[in-house]
Structure formats: C-alpha cells, structure tokens
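From the shared-data thread, chain only:
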Amino acid sequence: MDNPILAMPNQNSIVKRCFLCLFALTFIIHDSNGQTSTEIDSLIGLLDQDLHDTTRYNVNYELFRKNYRRDIDKAKSYLDEELRIAQSLNDEDRIARSQNHLGIYYNITSRYEDALLVFQNLKDQYEKQGNQSRVSKSLTNMANAYRRLGKIKMALEVQMESLAIDEELGIEGNDMANNYFSIGNMHGEINNLDVSTQWYTKAATIYQEIGNEEFYHRSKHMIGLNYMIADSLDIAKTNLEEVKAYYVENNLRSALNMALDNLGTVAEKQGNIDEAIKLFNEALTSAESVNQINMQGEMNQRIGALYLDQNKYTEAIRYASKALDISSRIKERRNTAFNLQILKNAYGALNDVPNAYRYQTRYMSLADSINTEDNKAALEEIEVKYQTEKKEQEIAILEEKAKVDQLKQKGLLGGVFGLLGLVGALLYAMRERRNKNRMAQEKLDQELQFSRQELEARKQELTAFAIQLANKNETLESIKKEVKSVSQNRSDSKTIQGIINTIDFNINDDNNWETFRDRFEAVHKDFEKNIKNKFNQVTTNDLRLMSLLKMSLTSKEIANILNVSQDGVKKARYRLRKKLGLETGDSLEELILTL
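Structure, as tokens:
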C-alpha cells in the first residue's frame, strides 16, 4: 500500500519544492520594479481625486500589479474595479489586459482550470487580431496553469509553442532567457535532468551577457540542483557554493535558505552528517530571521531525523518537537505524521515507554486518517471510471434513438404502416436495452460499493499488519539483547540460549511473512506475477524487498521486518537496482510503484 508518510521526502520531492519556490520567486522579481510601499500609497491617494475613467483604470491596473504578490484579497478589489471600468469604456484592449490579470488571480488562488479558460480565450482573441506577441504571453500563462495542475508534459508543449513564436518575432535578452529558464524547470520536474541543465545553461549565458546577475545565479542554482539529483555531488557543491555566496552578499534570504538546504543534502549524500546538520541549522536560523515558517518546520524535521539516525535521541527529540509544533500549527498532516514517528522512535530508544506509546498512538491515528483519505481518492478515481462507463451506455441509447429517427424519415418514403411496424420493433428493442442497462448499472453499483468497502478494509489491515510486524521484530530484538546481557552473569546458559532460539524463531517465522504476503496480494493483485514477467532474475528475497518498498516503509521498518541491518537494506536495494538495470538517475521506488 502506498504510504508516503512513512518515509522522508525523496530527492524528487525536494527538487520539486525547490523548483516551485524558485518559480514563485521568479514572479516576484518580474513584478518587483518600483514595488514600494511609498508608490502604492501614492497610487491609492490618486483614487480619492476626480479622475477620468481611463486614468482611474490605469491606477487600478497598477495597484493590482503591485499588490497581487503582497495581498491577493486587496489586489482583487482593484481588479474588480479595473474590469468594471474597462467594460464601461467598451475598450477591447483594456478588457483583454484585465482578463489577463483575472487569469493571474485564478492562478494564485489555485483556480487553475478557470485560469486556463481565461488564457485560452485570450490566446484565441489575440490570434484573430494577429498579435503574436500577446499570443506568446498567453501561451506562457497557460503553461504556468498546466504546470500547477501537475500536467508538466502539456505545460512543456505549450511553453515550446510560445518559444517558437518568440524566436520567429526575434525576441532577445531577458524575455528569451526567461523562456529557457521555464523550460529548464519543466524538464527538471519530469526528471529529464540533462535536457533541463542544457536549457538552464542557455538561460544563464543570456542572463550573464545582459548583466542580470540575480537570474544568472538562479540558473546556476538549478544547474547545481540537477547535478545533486544525479549524484554528481562535487559539481553540485561547486555551483551551490557559488550561488550561496551571491545570495549572502545580496541578502536574498529565501533563495539562500534553499541553497543551504541543498548544500546540506549534498553533504548528507556524501556521508558528511555533521556538515549536513551544520548547514541545515544555518538554513533554520536564516528562516527564523525572516519568519519563513515552512522552511523552519522542514529544517527542524531533517535535523531531527539525522540525529535519530546518529542515535542522538535527546537532540532528535528537541528538533522533532519543534518540527511537530510547526507542522501541527500550519496543518501539514503528512509532516506531522513523520514528526510523530521520529519522536516515537527516539523515546522508544530511550526506553521512555509512556512517551513512546503516546506518540505511537497519535501517529497511528493520524496515519489511519491519511490512509483513509488516500483510499478515498483512489475510490473517487474508480467512481469516475464507473460514471464514464455509465455515460457511454447513455450515449449508446441516444445513438439508438438517433437511428430510430433516421429510420422514421426513411420509412415515411416507404409507407406509413411499414414505418410504424419498424418503429414499434425498435422501441421495443430500446425498452429491452434500457431495462438491461438499468439492471447492469444496479449490479455495477452494488459491486462498486462492495469493492470500495473491501479495498479500504484490506488496505487498512495490510498497513496495520506491516507496522505490527516491524514493531514486533524490533521489540524481540531488544528483548534478545537484554537476555544476552543477563546471560553473561548466569550459570544456566542452556536455558538462556533456548529463550534466544525461541526469539529468533519468532523473528524469522515464515508464517508471518506468508500472512503478510496474502494480505499484500489481496490489495496489490498480480504484483509478483508482473515482476516475474518483466524481471525473471529476481529472487524471493528481492520480491520481499520490493513488496515493502511498494508500501513506502522506512529503511528501519524494512530492516526490522526482514531481520537485517539498515546497511543490509541499502546493500539489498543496490543489488536490486543492478538486477533491474536502473541507471543512477532512475528511481527504484517510482519503478516499483508502476508494477
């Protein structure tokens, strides 16, 4: 069962966050010229004067531009006024410009489908007018909306169409570099790292030529990020150190925080854990100085997780507690679940049973809730498919009716009585088909309802059993260590060894695995069959590891279930990647999730 709350965010999720953050900063910069409180106050003061409608329109237009990144609700009031004035002036150009602002408003407020509709209409309008420059800008805005909807390939296709127009128009300089930068972002998000780096490099070259130092360094930042993901860590570090120095010098705090986070990730990948913790702490301090709450929560969580892996449980508790406070406050449920898990494991390692139990209980409750939401989303997808099939049946009935209408017309030429007989037969057939369809739909409704309940129950049982198995093995190992410690000072070593053997038998009991396997196959049907069909070289142990990875369990939980060390899990993952023919940039987890 897919359960992402049980694992730290992988490098793809980290890079996606960085892409989106830098992308958001891009828009802030593009609209930052002259964006001061003094200018805004001056414009607001103009609204109290007796202005001509065209001037009042221009003031509201500028106030929207200067406020939409600061206060979207306030910006919306200016947008409403500029739309009203444009309509009253019956000015097509001003109406179109205000519609563009409306699309931007929809994008910012996550109404991406509405934004797409607005930008598509503007594109069509500008195409009719032959205004290719504005067609290109509308396409870029459409690409932004597609991107926020997660439709990256569609966004890339639209952005490339915009680029082709700009090249034909001979656009140069900053606008062309921005095109390249956006395309680099999109390729990065679908993990085309080499292609992404090529586009960022083209953008960086132009930014440097025209003296746009800020975006030159942002391009270098993204290039470094690509190298980090591809595990070319020395090259990544060189790029990231360069941009870090620039961000410090120019006091670009948000970008600096991301650079420190990325450098910490590089250090962690290189095994320099102390250096990673130091860099994450720098990012944390910087985030606190600018009240960047999300970054504070993420850095506290990452530091807490590293301390837990280092067996520094008191420090892990200190940082994870802060992370938990933040994630609870801003209602990030998955981060909250992971923070609870860190605290549960840390207190458990300190033998603080009451606190370990308290956090375990909270974690299980929240995990169940999140899993239920995930299951609901999956069932909604099934519902969509069902409704689609139902719609197709309705269309078939309408087509049948259309055929009847055609036959009626033909029958009028051949004779009224023949027509009546034919229509009667067709109506009878339609009635029978409707009855058949109705019965089929009722049966499908019942099956769907049963499938929903059964799937949800099986998924919950599988999750509970896997966690119970991991915790059981961890507890038995702990008891075994205690028994071995006690046995050193006792004479009845045979009795002690018998107890240890019994514990080992329970840890390695294949009946537990068979029970897990049965429940797993009930949820993920034909998983093993699909693997064996594609990769006949995998062993039974490989299948066990792949099943646990399919559930997104942590390395520690996998180690407990398989009764191996966490290093053993890493080695097993490495061997499995080789068997499956995966390259360095390929994700083992993503491959397994598709099987």
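Residues 416-487 form the longest helix (72 residues).
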